[in-house]
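[09:14] KT: can someone run the structure on this one? pasting the chain below
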Amino acid sequence: MKKFRKVLDGLTTSSPVNPGGSPGCGSAAGTPSAAPTPRELEIQETLMSEHFQICKTVRHGFPYQPTALAFDPVQKILAIGSRSGGIRILGRPGVDCHSQHESGAAVLQMQFLINEGALVTACADDTLHLWSLRQRLPAILHSLKFNRERITFCHLPFQSKWLYVGTERGNTHIVNIESFILSGYVIMWNKAIELSTKTHPGPVVHLSDSPKDEGKLLIGFESGTIVMWDLRAKRADFRIYYDEAIHSVSWHHEGRQFMCSHSDGSLSMWNMRNTAKPFQVTFPHGKTQRDGRKESCKPILKVEYKTSRNSSEAFVIFSGGLSYDKAGRRPTLTIMHGKAITVLEMDYPIVDFMVLCETPYLNEVQEPYAVVVLLEKDFVVVDLTQSNFPIFENPYPMDVHESPVTCTAYFADCPPDIIPVLYSIGAKHKKTGYSHKEWPVSGGTWTVGSQTYPEIIITGHADGSIKFWDATAITLQMLYKLKTSKVFEKPKTGDMGRSADLVEEDPYAVQMISWCPQSRIFCVVGISAHVILYRFSKHDANTIITSLELRLQCEMEDVISPSDTENTPCFSDPSGHSPQPQPPSPRSNTPDSVRDSIPCLKVKDRMIRMPPGYQAELVVQLLWVDGEPPQQITCLDLNSAYGLLALGNCNGLAVVDYLQKTILLCMSTLELYGSADPFQRLTRSPRKNRQSTSDFCMRGLSNFYSDSKKRIRTSYQSLTELSDNQVSLDLERSKSPTSAPYTPSLHNDPRGTGEPVSNLRSCHYSPVFYLLDNVKGPGRKLSLPTDLKTDLESRENSFSRSRSSSVSSIDRETKEAVTTLQFAESYGRKSDSLPTPCLWVGTSLGLVLIIPMSIPTDEQERQEDPVTVAPTGTVLMLKGSVLRFGFLDCGGALINSPYEVWRDQHAPDDPDRPRKRKLVNFSPSSSQEACGDGHLAVVCSERQAKVFYMPSQACLYVHNITESSFVLRADVVSVSNSVCLACFCANGHIMILSLPSLRPLLDVSYLPLTDMRIARTFCFTNGGQALYLCSPTEIQRITYSQEMCVNLQETLGELFTPIETPEAQNRGFLKGFFGGNAQTFDREELFGEASAGKASRSLAQHIPGQGGIEGMKAAAGGVVGDLARARIALDERGQRLGELEERTALMMTSAETFSKHAHELMLKCKDKKWYQF
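[09:31] RB: done, structure tokens below
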């Protein structure tokens, strides 16, 4: 190996690789460059293309913009439809499935085929879909597209295969569920109403069959017309014309009366014996005014009328109906039970609700036990069995969006003890007062898979809160919640000046998080340019939070001479505090022009009692400088073994020693290079007029980016094109900046239309941060829809034709942002023989700097002696903004960063076991004996990936990831006991590259990037998993591992479980004889093709599903499926035999009665003469 190293060094000295790489080096993907090849390293790459496949695994959170609700009372599973065409099916914890209509049309209504493992959905594109739930992933069996009419309401009677469909024209059609074909039987609106009626009744808003007689169909029209249609006679039994519009209808279980809800906030009760007028009209929330009239009320959108055995009084449950004069009242659900009226206020508007009952039969006493309430942003289940109506504790993670999510982090294969510890701390702060009964939505089955490992998802929110979630297997459970706002003083109303508007309503919004699971040290970056460092403790403590302040506000426009020390205001006092003796308070009314050396927020400076869990130890804040607000922090890294914290922004870099609470380094990026700056940047004279940036700086990075983009975007774009060719760059630099006038093309004018995601340049900010949108109120969306159809290629071509002017723009703007940071055991210089602690720094211009550090190894010395940081000027170069670093040993194994083993600093002292720092170090030389010293460094930018051999800094491999787009997120991850580079691009492509050879293993156009939310929250993790925020309320987890895709079916829950359908109650002879013969109604005979004929082909179009009925049989195949179908067939046969037996018994009784009466009459008249009659 020594011989190989000498060869490497010799070749590097004789023909060094250009910092940007030669053109041949980057032309072919994964091709070794002219530099020394790594063949002698003998790295066996085990990953192949067959190991990778993209698929969605599970979706967590509340369904975004819900529109519909359905429940199967036998299977006890629940479905929620959304405006985007999504369906979420929920059962017991672990049974959680998301499906999507390909059309993306909103789901208007859903109907379960009760206890049959199927679901019917009606969408806004006037299409009916039949979903099979007998497999783990639901599939569409049939679709029926209506061409001439809009669907408004659907009704499927229990144990019926005929679906009633009401339309906007007022017609009612009937669909066969099995074949999904329209019946020729149609109830036309002009037949339903009287011929003398001159107006159209409006759309159908309600359909239901009478509990007393299934042959009678109640049709409710929007105008207030109600028709009882006799299906056998094909005529109307009665018609009701009411003055107020109807929103819903609900039957009493005996079928003798029904209740309607109206647009004026009233409830009307109707008796079947007298339909001329309602026998009762009530305004539940309308009070009688002095003139005797009822006050106007809001519409009652839905009403449910349910009976109970234990009480003679029925439950009447409805939404809406409040009076208009009470402004500001929240949406309500009203429960009327006898004379008792309970009004439940909801936090969000009610979308739909459904009363859960013990029986699926409508003609039996309903026995309601719960109410499921679907809100716009929440999901509530109310217990009806207790008088105070408590709610059930929701087992699903429906509160991900409690405050808008601003960032995410995903950690797979965590230490096994971290989840129980976080859960035990978080359980102490759980809410109480929930119902003690079991969660009513308990359908399906789910078991934890055998191949599971601890996984944790962390979400940062707009209100400054942090949530830790247990994401093991496919579940998501809240573990612990941390509020970062408690570190700061609350702003007083009297001090709310201009600075209070700086960050609007979300001064604590979380931009980024950094977590070391082994040491349990946690860092939070906030939008107010602050960093909070937390340590974990199982004990409460009384501590004072240390605050450090940084002046990191270098403007290159002010640089006169590189050697002029007066123009380097970035260097701070070693104490970390401002040199001003008495700076003004952060929330004072100081004008922006004179605001200087103050932070945006004020840290609590008193003793604070901190509960067990994460306890704040240090706060680092960037200061205002000469009326300029601090720029947001763009990257952060912490290392618990070193005790150091590094942060960067568009001005420069700072390194903080959090053990000694001191600032080690605070420099601009230009000063970090020293004489090794690869670009000869022109100096500028000071600006005459300093325009304050306070209007945009702290209002979210998207606004700030759009302003700074006008100055830097063009220069960076040209620079990245030229950075891979040092010769052409030198030729262009030799020209005068004024030799060619700068004429930006119209295609690149930032003052035109808004910049789409695919045009955003990450040259100034890490992708996680420059995509952070405005964070205002808690209800405001954090992401805006973005048009992605703009092509980058034409813009790049326009730049390639004007390189001379582009180079002059380099001179115009020399500000350079720090985009990524990572501590590692590495080599700061080519001459180093041993690895030392280093900080790798990546910038927006594609440059990489390596900063070696000297850290005392003794624990006592580490607490007292200073850490020295010495920038060496070592520079590597790539195309595009640097995003990620990774380190491999010479065997191709991943080198993890060293860390400190967690110890509880607030635990009681134990003299036998002194608390000493225990460090775990993964040195590159510790895992390689035959290879000798050295390691491989993987550097990924938004356009390119390179692998360098350290310490010689030779470029071994280079791969141009994308030309037409740019990488948003890149991570070095472990998959199948090997390592790879995972990339997510702005054009929606997910790419996997092998390491170290950078061979493309996967390139899939997975996700069209529709908004910045996805870009801001997308992250990879080990084990072939990733996640992103697919909507403001939902987290989508995906996998790119073939093995996990294959085993996905085993990890998901079963939606359908074979259950016996409950038997109907015996009606008794008298009730059956005098109550009508509802059981004799045969829909097949009435609606079948033999009697009703065929429907018009132009009315609706049948679309077969992915597998049709054969697909359902195959999906539900196997012994379980066959047994379930056989059991259902036996149930149906037994039910029909029971009906036949009842009718036979009824006929025999009637015949015996007739025979008896005839015999009595014969005896009475036997001896009479003819004239005696």
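[09:33] KT: thanks! The longest helix spans residues 1118-1165.
[09:34] RB: yep, looked fine to me
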